[in-house]
Amino acid sequence: MAITTEQIKELREATGVGILECRKALEQANGDFKKAVDFLREKGLATAAKRADRQASEGVLELYSHGGGRVGVMVEVNCETDFVARSEPFRTFAHEIALQIAAAAPRYIRESDIPEEELEHERQIARARALEEGKPEAVVDKIVAGRIEKFKDEVCLLRQPYIRDENITIEKLLLQNIASMGENIIIRRFVRWERGESTED
User: Fold this and answer.
1) Can you give the residue range of the structural domain that contains 97?
2) d(CA 201, CA 178)
3) Using one digit for the tens of pLDDT, what is the confidence trace for 7-21?
């Protein structure tokens, strides 16, 4: 099937991928636009995973204040080059991460950042709650494991559903941006303040 320049242009505008890659994707998908997009996304996410070990020391410190100064966020997002760090898509991504942190109040970036004592404490609470609810001993461990996974989804930024699209996690959003920008991107660290909270919180 012959691929038209209009099809390539449309796919390129939708994905931000180069002309040759778009042509190849459309040829693979026999001209089916949706399949071509899926093909590029899968390829992009695979490529993004390969880039994960590349040095990323450029980037931005994104500051965000929400609700008339009720919540403040500072997040450091890094990439490989100054060129990408100054680009609109990278700046937009950093801003979206700051919005996510303000709205969803994660405590950690990834699950490996959660101290083991905190996980153990949560397991004890989940176990006590399951027993209090009268759950049989045989299923308590499964219930505890499920509640721990839910806890990680709530407190880990990368595991949280994206506030603008609940169907994807922040980790998937990060991988999509790595794929589209062609550089490794790292959410390095963040701080979130809420007016009135004590410093012990």
Assistant:
1) 58-109+160-194
2) 33
3) 888 877 766 667 888
